[in-house]
Design a protein that fits this description.
Number of strands of chain B: 14
Structural class of chain A: alpha+beta
Shape of chain A: globular
Shape of chain B: globular
Radius of gyration of chain A: 18 Å
Order of helices and strands of chain A: HEEEEHHEEEEHHEEH
CATH architecture of chain A: 4-Layer Sandwich
Oligomer: heterodimer
Largest sheet of chain A: 5 strands, antiparallel
Subcellular location (chain B): Cytoplasm; Nucleus
CATH class of the largest domain in chain B: Alpha Beta
Family (chain B): Belongs to the peptidase T1B family.
InterPro entries (chain B): Ntn_hydrolases_N, Proteasome_beta4, Proteasome_bsu_CS, Proteasome_sua/b, Proteasome_suB-type
Number of domains of chain B: 2
CATH topology of the largest domain in chain B: Glutamine Phosphoribosylpyrophosphate, subunit 1, domain 1
Strand order of the largest sheet of chain A: 8-1-2-9-10
Distance between the termini of chain B: 77 Å
Function (chain B): Non-catalytic component of the proteasome.
CATH topology of chain A: Glutamine Phosphoribosylpyrophosphate, subunit 1, domain 1
Radius of gyration of chain B: 23 Å
CATH class of chain A: Alpha Beta
Helix content of chain B: 25-40%
CATH superfamily of chain A: Aminohydrolase, N-terminal nucleophile (Ntn) domain
Helix content of chain A: 25-40%
Number of domains of chain A: 1
Structural class of chain B: alpha+beta
CATH architecture of the largest domain in chain B: 4-Layer Sandwich
Largest interface: A-B, 11 and 8 residues
Order of helices and strands of chain B: HHEEEEEEEHHEEEEHHHEEEHH
CATH superfamily of the largest domain in chain B: Aminohydrolase, N-terminal nucleophile (Ntn) domain
Protein name (chain B): Proteasome subunit beta
Number of strands of chain A: 10
Strand content of chain B: 25-35%
Number of helices of chain A: 6
Chain lengths: 249, 276
């Protein structure tokens, strides 16, 4: 065995002597190599933004989406392996549908997040499977108001006011910590997220990127999870670029 | 042991014995197995909808220049009893389609859930296209045809109306999956009473109707139905589908002629009051 895992990383059902499951650590590494994804919960809704890295100039605009709707009132943002995450999105849609059929009301965001997390967790228990190489941010509005949860490969499911993951996780976190979430509107949050994603992006090292923005708000989108409309998005992007130029001067 | 099944095999409100249940062949009474086993094999455990219980009456709809007007009353009858008098029998599906449903209320509710799932899936795909009225109409037709082939039909007649890209769509599906499109459609008792009225008005206006004309026509038809159809009410809803989308009205109480008898029936109220 080579030095990295010393044989303890061959299966998710083996602990290392210091109590780690290396496969889960590796899954987290896969997330850290991916474009940054951040979300902000405001008083009236949630905004999600993803720095979608473009691997080739020949890709169609808008392909490989990293923000998806799961139900009318819930959406997810993705960091990590897209194919793995799409599997989670599919499962989340199935859970949302079955909950509605059984209980006759939309699934609460917390319940959905916990069910998706339970699936991730199951994939850390058996030697025959590998952990999901992705983290997702689940945002939505239910009876409790706006909700924001992050689900990781380990199967953890944690609620946040502001969450970040991917390459620029730490830098984005530092920026998010300055925000007063309860005083912010979704409109301001869109600009803030655009600014953070643009500032976190490493122009030298990284490929080109496209900003993807999704939002849900009781007032702005009537409680539906939508992609941010073009005009608002381009406003936010020019605001972000200006802010970045000013900071560099 | 002989086991008399007659008491469970009668339809509750037997209008028509569609599946010939009354002359149902008894399962072989002389099977060599013991009777408890035989008892479990009766068809009571997998009873299908062989008869509607709570029903809505007619749906009527007509195309006009620029859209479609559809009208229903709000009554759901339990047999001949006017049981639920404020039930909405129209439903918006997707962005520019409305359906009006007559027949079994619970089957309508089930259909509503199915269609909501369908439109939610469409919403999640988010590829910029939305289900057209014709797709929804065809989906319902497939759904109905499929369940009637299982011998378990959804006991409804559905009218699908929509307007998209400047084109109106009006179609109908019945409980066995028969479907067609037309410029004016009526279901149930309305197919006998209202359809000739719709046809006449449509033929009298070769250049098409205005929206006001169409709304008035639908209201008039529902009023006639209220007079003639014992399963209808004067509490109605009228929906308009045009390029602005779907608009289902609040409940409307139809004006009717006075229902006094004797002298009051031939005079207006004021004439009677003035003693003329």
């Amino acid at each position: 065995m080579t030095s990295v895992g010393s044989g303890y990383d061959l299966s998710v059902s083996t602990y290392s002597p210091d109590g780690k499951i290396f496969q889960v650590d590796y899954a987290n590494k896969a997330v850290e190599n991916s474009g940054t994804c951040i979300a902000i919960k405001t008083k009236d809704g949630v905004v999600v933004g993803v720095e979608k890295l473009i691997p080739s100039k020949m890709l169609c605009h808008g392909s490989n989406r990293r923000i998806h709707a799961v139900d009318l009132h819930i959406g997810v943002g993705i960091s990590g392996f897209l194919a793995d995450a799409r599997q989670l999105v599919l499962r989340a849609r199935a859970e949302a549908k079955s909950y509605k059929q059984i209980y006759g009301q939309p699934i609460p965001v917390k319940v959905l997040s916990q069910r998706v997390a339970a699936l991730c967790h199951v994939y850390t228990l058996y030697g025959s499977v590998r952990a999901f190489g992705c983290s997702i941010i689940i945002s939505g509005i239910d009876q409790e108001g706006p909700q924001l949860y992050q689900v990781e490969p380990s199967g953890s499911c944690i609620g946040y006011f502001g969450a970040s993951m991917g390459k620029g996780k730490q830098a984005a976190k530092n920026e998010l910590e300055k925000i007063k979430f309860n005083e912010m509107t979704t409109h301001e949050a869109i600009k803030e997220i655009a600014k953070i994603i643009y500032s976190v992006h490493d122009e030298v090292k990284d490929k080109d990127f496209q900003l993807e923005l999704g939002w849900i708000s009781t007032t702005e989108t009537k409680g539906q999870f939508n992609m941010v409309p073009k005009d608002l998005q381009s406003d936010a992007e020019s605001y972000a670029k200006n802010a970045l130029e000013e900071a560099n001067m | 042991m002989s086991f008399n099944q007659d008491y469970i095999s009668h339809p509750v409100f037997g209008q028509v014995d569609y599946f010939n249940k009354k002359n149902h062949q008894q399962p072989n009474q002389h099977t060599p197995y013991y009777s408890v086993h035989n008892h479990h094999q009766t068809d009571a455990g997998k009873q299908k909808t062989l008869d509607p219980i709570v029903t809505g009456s007619s749906v009527i709809a007509i195309k006009y220049n620029g859209g479609i007007v559809m009208g229903t009353d709000m009554l759901c009858s339990y047999g001949s009893l006017a049981r639920f008098n404020s039930v909405q029998r129209q439903k918006q599906v997707g962005t520019h389609t409305v359906i009006g449903v007559s027949g079994e209320l619970s089957d309508f509710q089930s259909l509503s859930n199915t269609l909501d799932d369908l439109t939610t899936d469409d919403f999640c795909i988010d590829d910029g296209s939305k289900l057209s009225s014709q797709e929804i109409w065809n989906y319902i037709a497939r759904l109905f045809y499929n369940s009637r082939n299982k011998g378990n039909p959804l006991w409804n007649t559905v009218v699908v109306a929509g307007n998209q890209n400047g084109k109106s769509f009006l179609g109908k599906v019945d409980l066995v999956g028969t479907c067609y499109q037309d410029d004016f459609i009526a279901t149930g008792y309305g197919a006998h009473i209202a359809l000739p009225l719709l046809r006449k008005e449509y033929d009298d206006n070769p250049n098409g109707l205005s929206q006001d004309q169409a709304v008035k026509l639908i209201q008039d038809c529902l009023r006639v139905l209220f007079y003639r159809d014992a399963r209808s009410s004067k509490r109605i809803q009228v929906s308009v589908v045009d390029s602005n989308g779907v608009k289902i009205s609040d409940p409307i109480e139809l004006d009717t002629y006075n229902w006094h008898s004797g002298e009051a029936a031939v005079r207006t109220f004021q004439q009677v009051a003035l003693g003329k």
